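Field log, afternoon session.

UNIT: design team B
ACTIVITY: writing a sequence onto a fixed backbone
BACKBONE:
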């Protein structure tokens, strides 16, 4: 069965009852598995992670839009995370037996439907983008909701689907297809926003840092600290441990320590395997050494583990 993961980012992180409604809209969709949910007060943002067949995922995303367009008003929305829409971004990620082409087709199908039903302008991004300058999500978000109307007056920022002006309360949405990324934040034991921004600049690729890292420094007013908020777009080529160590080293330059870190959504097990290799210096360590992975492999063969279907040596 071809499975597709979807990780919509919703511009609501403070009304728990409303986020419950969004989560229930996904969870009650036949054929969809709601895997994770997280909300952040300072970011004023929630992220849902779910998976299913293309048809089932499409139904769940449209159910989310129905709820969000009716309940979220970006004219009253303020948070530290950039956003252009009530449902700000909807990425589709290929899982088992699904291809990137499947996700691109789904992004275009859902984008057309969103624009038709709710008159929300839709921009296609990453692998689904129809124009090169729209591949990076940060380019689409530049100017945010407040600058969207002016931005859309330019020919190069006419939407791929929908009206040439923002929805009055729901803005616009970016819908795309991409490979798995890790949304990873590191919280610093300081309230100095200038330090977080300097570290983010040192870490992100666009300003000379690590390849496949996007980063920004933001305040977490509810905790009285600052955060380096990141997307790691290829954890295989830039492992999470390397990112953590660079942030730690840069923070030390300013006499600041790391308080803690957090994941938004889920993380591929391979990323944790790389982290274990780095910090524990395990020789030839791989996911095959993880008990649950070995068990899943044995079960997939519909037979008890035996010398013939167990990788050697242990």
């Amino acid at each position: 069965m071809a499975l597709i993961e979807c990780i919509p980012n919703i511009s609501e992180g403070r009304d728990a009852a409303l986020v419950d409604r969004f989560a229930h809209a996904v969870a009650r969709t036949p054929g969809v598995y709601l895997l994770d949910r997280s909300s952040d007060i300072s970011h004023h943002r929630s992220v849902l992670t779910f998976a299913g067949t293309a048809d089932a995922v499409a139904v769940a995303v449209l159910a989310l839009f129905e709820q969000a367009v009716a309940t979220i008003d970006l004219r009253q929305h303020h948070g530290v995370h950039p956003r252009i829409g009530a449902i700000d971004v909807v990425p589709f990620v290929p899982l088992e037996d699904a291809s990137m082409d499947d996700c691109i087709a789904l992004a275009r199908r859902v984008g057309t439907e969103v624009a038709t039903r709710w008159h929300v302008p839709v921009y296609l991004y990453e692998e689904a983008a129809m124009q090169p300058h729209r591949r990076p999500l940060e380019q689409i978000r530049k100017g945010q909701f407040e600058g969207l109307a002016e931005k859309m007056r330019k020919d190069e920022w006419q939407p791929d689907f929908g009206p040439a002006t923002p929805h009055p309360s729901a803005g616009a949405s970016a819908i795309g297809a991409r490979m798995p990324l890790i949304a990873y934040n590191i919280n610093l034991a300081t309230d100095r926003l200038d330090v977080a921004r300097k570290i983010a600049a040192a870490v992100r690729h666009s300003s000379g840092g690590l390849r496949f890292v996007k980063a920004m420094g933001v305040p977490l007013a509810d905790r009285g600290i600052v955060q380096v908020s990141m997307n790691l777009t290829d954890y295989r080529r830039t492992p999470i441990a390397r990112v953590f160590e660079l942030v730690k080293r840069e923070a030390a330059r300013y006499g600041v320590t790391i308080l803690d870190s957090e994941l938004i959504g889920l993380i591929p097990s391979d990323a944790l395997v790389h982290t274990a290799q780095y910090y524990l210096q395990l020789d030839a360590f791989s996911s095959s050494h993880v008990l649950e992975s070995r068990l899943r492999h044995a079960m997939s063969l519909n037979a008890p583990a035996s010398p013939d279907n167990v990788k050697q040596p242990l």
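LOG NOTE: The domain at 182-282 is CATH 3.30.70.670 (Alpha-Beta Plaits).
NEXT ACTIVITY: expression trials, pending approval
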